[in-house]
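Practice record 12: protein with N-(5'-phosphopyridoxyl)-D-alanine.
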Amino acid sequence: MIKSKQVFLNGAYLPVENATVSVMDRGFLFGDGIYEVIPVYCGSLFRFDAHLDRLENSLKLARIDNPYSRDEWRDIMLPLIDATKDQYIYFQVTRGAAEKRDHAFPAGVKPTVFMMCNDIAPFDDKELGVKAISVDDNRWSLCNIKAITLLGNILLRQQAVENDCAEAILVREGYVTEGSASNVFAVIDGVLITPPKSNFILAGITRDVILELADAHNIPYAQDIISLDALKTASEIWFASSTREILPVIELDGLPVANGKVGRLWHTMNDLLQAYKSSYAASGK
Ligand code: PDD
């Protein structure tokens, strides 16, 4: 195992302070690249293939060549991991460094690949729930690409933070899309609902796992549109992501969600997710 301060850059492992890229890199100049985040539990890469499917899709849509095979990607990740704690692999691929700044694709450049592994910071008092605000989803319409170009998401998250909220719920033309860095679930009339996959949301891997668990445990669920008005009648609202898992929302736009307490289904689903994570890691996948 390599020490945790090591990162991977363009074919080599090196200390993070020595890992530098050219100022001509298109990731730096244009945000021209894509990324992935894979949780690692007990040394096991959670849903590796699903994350690699999404990586391949992002690369295809961004028209960046995939520099590695799946086995090569896995081999690059493993030495960065400390199996004694919960961590996540972050990696990004940019179009590379060109000689000139020009919006159009440069010819003959090699993608830049950067990867690091960080501890997953436990979310303090998750069981008490968090506050959220609804904001206008003013991002572009290619949100299905996991692009490093995150200024839109960053501005919306910051708006939430400045309103003492943990996350923003993005609303496009009256309908919920997702969070600034998460997917959204709501329990409405006893049914667990999340907006369907489209180019306006990132297809979260945690989202898929939650839907599979609902299906396997006879929890009524649907992938359906949710208006902001309907969201305000929800008995539960959750955010879902690789690094925050499932986060219950107890307040939306300054008003309590239902009775303002974390709901029953969140406890059920959180228990199912924790059990699934353990069994997944134990299966040695
Ligand atoms: N973000 N939607 C957006 C916009 C996201 O940024 C994320 C995750 C998700 C949830 O996807 P997943 O369940 O696969 O993590 C949905 C990661 C964690 C990030 O940017 O750090």
